[in-house]
Amino acid sequence: MTTDAARRRCVFIDAIHVKIRDGAVANRPVYVALAVTTEGRREILGLWAGDGGEGAKHWLHVLTEIKNRGVSDVLILVCAGLKGLPEAVEAVWPRTIVQTCVVHLLRNSFRYAARQDWDKIAELVKPVYTAPTEEAALDRFAEFAEFADAWGRKYPAIVKQWENAWEEFTPFLRFDTEIRRIVCTTNAIESVNARIRRAVKARGHFPNEQAALKCVYMAIMSLDPTGKGQSRWIMRWKTALNAFDITFDGRLSAARQQPSTPVTPLV
Predict the structure, then answer these.
(1) Does pTM top 0.70 for this prediction?
(2) Contact 188, 36 (CB under 8 A)
(3) What distances in angstroms separate CA 204 from CA 48, 66, 207, one per listed residue?
(4) How big is the CA angle at 117 (ends 115 and 122), to the nearest 5 degrees?
(5) Tens digits of per-residue pLDDT, 200-249?
(6) Cβ of 151: how many Cβ atoms within 10 Å?
C-alpha cells in the first residue's frame, strides 16, 4: 500500500457493505480504492467507512488525502456511480476522466424491472454499451428509449437512470478496444472485494466502525501471499497500458520517467 504513487494511473473505487452494530445493526459501506501503476501493478490506496449518504464534500476529502500522499495525476477513475465523486475528481485532478462501471449500471437497471423482463432489457441495452462510437451509442439508446415508450412506459426509471449517468458512462467509448475492456467495469477490484466479503461474512457483524475496518484491512493484507497473482495481473495489463500511452498523449511515458515518490500508507 505504499511505493510510487506518482506512477499510479488508473484508480478504481468500489464499496462493500458490512453490518455494524451502532445501537442497532445496520449495513454500512466500506469504500476501497485500488490503483494500477504504470508497470501494471495493483495497489490498495486506502479504506474509508461511510454511512451511505456520502456526497461531494466527503469525496473531496478522500481524494485530497490521496493526492497529498503523492498521487499527483490519474488518467481514469472508475466507480459505480457514487454521488458527488465526479465533482470532487474535477476539483482534485482536473484532467482525470471519470468512468461509471457499465456492469453496475446494468445491474441497477434490473432493480427497476421484473425478473421475467431482465433478458429482454439486457438484449436491448447491449448495443448501447458495445457501440463503436459515442454517436452510435446515442442512436442505439434512442432506439431503446423508443422501445421502452412502446412498452407502455413500463420502466421509465431505467431510461432515466441511463440518461442521468450518460456523461460518466460514455468516456470508455472513445478508447481503443484494449482500454475499453479495462475501464468499462470495476472488475479490477472485484477479486479483492470477493476476498473481503468472505472475511466479513465469517464475522457476521461488528461492534463498531474500527473493528470492521480492521477486519477488511487484514483481509487485504492476506491477498496474494506468493505474488503469482500480481505477476498475472501485470501481464494482463501490458497491452492496455500501451494503448493508454497513445490515448493520453504520453502522460504514461512521462510518469515512467519520473523518480519514485515515497508515500505514506493510507491504512
Answers:
(1) yes
(2) yes
(3) 19, 30, 10
(4) 105
(5) 988 888 999 999 999 999 998 888 777 777 787 777 777 777 788 788 87
(6) 14
